[in-house]
Amino acid sequence: MSKVLMKGNEAIGEAAIKAGCRYFFGYPITPQSELPEYLSRRLPQVGGVYLQAESEVAAINMVYGAASTGARVMTSSSSPGISLKQEGISYLAGSELPCVIVNIMRGGPGLGGIQPSQSDYFQATKGGGHGDYRLLVLAPASVQEIVDLVKEGFDLAEKYRIPVMILGDGILGQMMEPVDLGSERTLEAGEKPWAVTGKMGRTKNIINSLYLDPEKLEKHNRHLERKYQEIKAKETRSESYLTDDAEIVVAAYGMIARVAKAAVDMAREEGIKAGVFRPITLWPYPEKELNQATVQAKAVLTVEMSLGQMVEDVRLSLNGRLPVEFYGRVGGMVPTARAIYEEIKRLAKTYGEVK
Question: Domain range for residue 35?
Answer without folding.
Answer: 4-183+210-235
